[in-house]
Specification:
Elements: E1 9-11, H1 15-26, E2 29-33, E3 37-42, E4 49-54, E5 69-73, H2 77-86, E6 93-98, E7 102-108, E8 114-120, H3 125-128
Parallel strand pairs: 1-4, 5-8
Antiparallel strand pairs: 2-3, 3-4, 6-7, 7-8
Length: 133
């Protein structure tokens, strides 16, 4: 298999709230919106970061994002933290340095999906061996 991209689609009754959340807080661009299905692009054209939301459809199995975390690598995690908390989001995980090699924090979207924003850092000696070439 040669995959060109991967984009999660979250089945939720909160399609409109999800769209608005990502547009407002993450500068997502709406590339498709038919009401019950929305496709968003994050990071600019051609960056490969996309996210979709779909309202539950008759005859389709319901999906539950419980346990799902989206990791988002950002250029300046401190600036993102300042902007998102200033906009009223309350972190579910504080901004802090982690020994595995990042500085990050987490917020939740309207679906309860955890969004972990981070910037890479030098890992502690105990975690360096976990990185594979």
């Amino acid at each position: 298999m040669h995959a060109r991209s991967l984009s999660p689609c979250i089945v939720t009754p909160a399609v409109e709230a999800s769209r608005d959340f990502y547009v407002r807080h993450f500068a997502a661009r709406v590339v498709f919106d038919c009401g019950w299905y929305v496709s968003l692009e994050l990071g600019g054209a051609g960056q490969g970061a996309a996210l979709q939301f779909m309202a539950p459809q008759p005859g389709q199995p319901a999906c539950n994002p419980a346990g799902l975390t989206c990791n988002i690598d950002v250029v300046d995690v401190d600036a993102e933290f300042a902007a998102l908390t200033a906009a009223g989001l309350v972190p579910v995980m504080p901004l802090e340095d982690h020994p595995w090699g990042d500085r990050g924090f987490a917020v939740e979207d309207p679906n309860g999906l955890t969004l972990y924003l981070y910037s890479p850092r030098e890992p502690s000696p105990g975690f360096k061996a976990a990185f594979k070439a």
